[in-house]
């Protein structure tokens, strides 16, 4: 995963960014990363739960063979469910 942060392609815009890198495997792997603006573990875990649910709901749209890191700021969890989904899908459209 460290290689993902060194050599990647960035997609999306704040409060949610994607870092992607080809992994050459027949599946996609995900890393959910709330940033340091999340002050408590409760806030970080809420953001991770939201991201996991978005990935679970749209896994068929995500190409296989990539490592993906989803970076979010605390404002992400404060958005409405529809706004989060629109933000997620707009970043997904930029996928290589």
UniProtKB/TrEMBL annotation:
GO biological process, one term: tRNA processing
Keyword Transport: no
Keywords annotated in UniProt: Endonuclease, Hydrolase, Nuclease, RNA-binding, tRNA processing
Superkingdom of source: Bacteria
Coiled coil: none
Pfam families the record matches: Ribonuclease_P
GO molecular function, one term: ribonuclease P activity
RNA-binding among keywords: yes
Protein name: Ribonuclease P protein component-like protein
Species this chain originates from: Leptospira noumeaensis
């Amino acid at each position: 995963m460290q290689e993902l942060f060194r050599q990647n392609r960035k997609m999306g815009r704040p409060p949610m960014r994607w870092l992607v890198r080809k992994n050459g495997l027949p599946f996609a792997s995900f890393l959910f990363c709330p940033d340091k603006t999340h002050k408590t573990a409760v806030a970080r875990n809420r953001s991770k739960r939201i991201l996991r649910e978005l990935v679970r709901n749209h896994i068929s749209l995500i190409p296989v063979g990539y490592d993906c890191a989803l970076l979010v700021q605390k404002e992400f969890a404060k958005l409405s469910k529809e706004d989060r989904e629109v933000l997620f899908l707009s970043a997904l459209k930029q996928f290589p």
